[in-house]
Amino acid sequence: MIKQEKKKESIQSLRWRVAEAGFFGGLLWSSVGVFASYFNFTKVSPSSLTLQLFFRANWIMHWQGELLAILILSIISIVLAYLYYFFLKNLTGMMPGLLYGIGIWLAIFLGLSNWFESVPSLVTLSKDTIVTTICIFILYGVFIGYTISYDFMDYNSEQQ
Amino acid sequence: MFKQKAAKINFGNLRQVEHFMQEHVGVGVSFDVGFREIILLKQRVHIYYLNGLCDSAIIVELLKVLIAINDHEPEAVALPIIVKNRLVHQQFEETKDMESAVTQLLSGLIVIFIEDYNQAMVVDVRTYPGRSPEEPDTERVVRGSRDGYTENIIENTALTRRRVRDPRLRNEILQIGDRSKTDVCISYIKDIADEQLIKVIRRELETIKTDGLSMADKTIEEYIVHQGFNPFPLVRYTERPDVASNHLFEGHVLIMVDTSPSMIITPTTFFHHLQHAEEYRQSPAVGTFIRWIRFLGILISIFLLPLWYLLSLESQLLPEALSFIGPSEEGTIPLFLQIVFADIGIEFLRMAAIHTPTPLSTAMGLIAAILIGDIAIEVGLFSSEVILYVALSAIGSYVTPSYELSIANKLVRVAIVILTAAFGLSGFVISSTGYILMLAKTKSLNTPYMWPFIPFNLKAFQQVFVRYSVPSSESRPSIIHPKRNLK
């Protein structure tokens, strides 16, 4: 009985940690994205992936917009982390995370760009933007993926 | 060969023992090994010693007591028992193994053979030449204890034991090196440290096959972490007993090697190399501040120079507010070469500073600062901005508490600069990403190197980012897999 309760508790804490990883992953790497777009490494900034999809106010293009965008992306990132957790948590190593990052990147620039004006489609992107964004998404994917699979592995070895 | 010969020796036959010692240990050839024959109750007794490593005063005392046997004891049957009783020293043992007796002899113990007695008596009378504990140069603090480990492993375990009186502290000793027979000690607290880790370390140490460990801890490190060409330090070193004992309490396993004052702390992550005892000597707020500034310095030491170089290569990247950045006039020498030359120059200085005697170092500093730095700008060899950024990143790497990490980071910086020169922005971005991925992929004794950043662990990451007060950090870091989580 106690054992079962403990198990329940630790699976809860595992799920909570997935949320943490998602939130802080989003926070960190979208901040890096803001930094990169400030230095014009990329034309696509966090705000153009979120706020500018729907709104066209002037402040959105400035740092206030980016700050809000970081927050929104952090919350969206929790969802992405749970997606990873539910479907891919059994995979080990860094490669799955890396591919997950590239997958999200492709989804944005091949999928999202069809419907929204603020997301340029893949063909129109400059080389600099492609390289920068793909690197950030790879790092994000590895961050999320490696964390979740490591925590899950830890959880499994604790259960035994 | 030595082993086979040693196995055949009859300890009671002193002539045979003497012959063996002359033939295989060099008694009579090497001037530092000798023996003394005394007659006790009409029986011959041989005492072998190594003159440099044993304490003559104690030996003389022991001899006095032994010789007195002739005066006090009646003609008796059992000389060995009397001798054993009369060897007034607490560290005494008997052995039947010639090989280990020889190793003991060469470690500075005296070995006593008695005619017609099939064992050798070994008394620990060694004193090793060495210095007394001093504050380690690389880990100074403003306040706090000033003692540091020395080259003597016995003293080192004693310094640790002074801080950890726990009966569960274990110091396992083993000898490594076919020829050097260096003492290596694994220290851990039994009910905290991860057994799996201890097992792995013990196994790795036992499988080491080498002649000698002349570079002591470094050689051991390369064997146990399988370093290869990875430039990053995969274990942390410390020369401070307080740092070492703190890690013992957290559940780490220490490895000490005789003849080296540096303890190896395992398992280690990247962030262990960013800590310094000084943070824990200050109030938590100040400690946190110091830490942030240090992180900033380390980030600067890696990324600032390549970033600046990239921005001055491709000035269209610069935001308007920062448009002043970048050299105003192109020098005669390309920027890339200027950076490389300046960086090499600083490396010259660093290397020269290590082996320049102190009286000359002022002269060296002057030459470096005025002659090279100043004149190079005036002549037009370097632009002053290059000097500024190269100097900033050099200072940044001196801020890194771990010397090994700062050099590894320097290598990374040079690599990023070269790739930026070759591929521009893509080179910079891809090499920076590669740097992080490479670190994340690295494992030291099954511990992810970038933990708690990648894989992310919020609680531990807070501990890295903020220096919490000791009473409020009540749990041990989970990466070590301690047997007891709470302190």
Automatic annotation (TrEMBL), chain A:
Protein name per its UniProtKB record: Conserved membrane protein YqhR
Superkingdom assignment: Bacteria
Keywords for the protein's UniProt record, in alphabetical order: Membrane, Transmembrane, Transmembrane helix
Pfam families recorded: YqhR
Transmembrane segments: 21-41, 61-85, 97-116, 128-148
Protein species of origin: Amphibacillus marinus
Automatic annotation (TrEMBL), chain B:
Keyword Lipid biosynthesis (UniProt): no
TM spans (from-to): 292-311, 365-392, 412-440
BP GO terms, sorted: spore germination
Subcellular location as annotated: Cell membrane; Membrane
Domain of life: Bacteria
Membrane topology: Multi-pass membrane protein
Keywords (A to Z) from UniProt: Membrane, Transmembrane, Transmembrane helix
Signal peptide: none
GO CC, alphabetical: plasma membrane
PANTHER family according to UniProt: SPORE GERMINATION PROTEIN, STAGE V SPORULATION PROTEIN AF
Membership in a protein family: Belongs to the GerABKA family.
Record-given protein name: Stage V sporulation protein AF
Organism: Amphibacillus marinus
